Amino acid sequence: MNKPWILGLTGGIGSGKSAVAAHFSALGVHLVDADHAARWVVEPGRPALERIAEHFGRDVLQADGQLDRAALRQRIFQSPEERRWLESLLHPLIGEEINNYLSSAESPYAILVSPLLVESGQHRLTQRVLVVDAPEALQIQRTMHRDQVPEEQVHAILKVQASREHRLQHAHDVLVNDRDLNWLRAEVERLHNFYLTLRGGQP
């Protein structure tokens, strides 16, 4: 049995990355979500959570001992140094978690879904990168509608994420998601059939 090659799937907030990932998964592709891995590494009882509480203080924990994400987000959005400290703690742990999950894949290729694939260096774990792209105005509109958040907050998130240009420089494939869901699914199926012909992510 050949070891599956790894496709990195990324896109800015509101690009439709989750809808694309869900359809690949429905087609039987093994999927690992970096966001889920990021949640697992800060579960109560895991060393990372203890380090975070020591560094930021106990008020970043909820009463039940879980991480208070909103409180932590508030801290790191205001301070680039604190964000870098947190990233240097979490990125290696998340990378380990991701590798463990990818190594159990049984499909011909597996997908690592990560909004920060490029920024975090996780693209180095992959052999090929698919970027889900959408016009910025559409990203903002979708995110405001989905998360019920004001436009300024979406702009703040967009600033932290890689610019579209930077993300697209790393892309082997680009899926521009500016139409309806049926069209999007058909595109995913077209890409899936192409990916099944690849060895190690290369034609």
TrEMBL record:
<protein>
    <recommendedName>
        <fullName>Dephospho-CoA kinase</fullName>
        <ecNumber>2.7.1.24</ecNumber>
    </recommendedName>
</protein>
<keyword id="KW-0963">Cytoplasm</keyword>
<comment type="pathway">
    <text>Cofactor biosynthesis; coenzyme A biosynthesis; CoA from (R)-pantothenate: step 5/5.</text>
</comment>
<keyword id="KW-0418">Kinase</keyword>
<dbReference type="Pfam" id="PF01121">
    <property type="entry name" value="CoaE"/>
</dbReference>
<feature type="binding site">
    <location>
        <begin position="14"/>
        <end position="19"/>
    </location>
    <ligand>
        <name>ATP</name>
    </ligand>
</feature>
<keyword id="KW-0067">ATP-binding</keyword>
<keyword id="KW-0808">Transferase</keyword>
<comment type="function">
    <text>Catalyzes the phosphorylation of the 3'-hydroxyl group of dephosphocoenzyme A to form coenzyme A.</text>
</comment>
<dbReference type="GO" id="GO:0004140">
    <property type="term" value="F:dephospho-CoA kinase activity"/>
</dbReference>
<keyword id="KW-0173">Coenzyme A biosynthesis</keyword>
<dbReference type="InterPro" id="IPR001977">
    <property type="entry name" value="Depp_CoAkinase"/>
</dbReference>
<keyword id="KW-0547">Nucleotide-binding</keyword>
<comment type="similarity">
    <text>Belongs to the CoaE family.</text>
</comment>
<dbReference type="InterPro" id="IPR027417">
    <property type="entry name" value="P-loop_NTPase"/>
</dbReference>
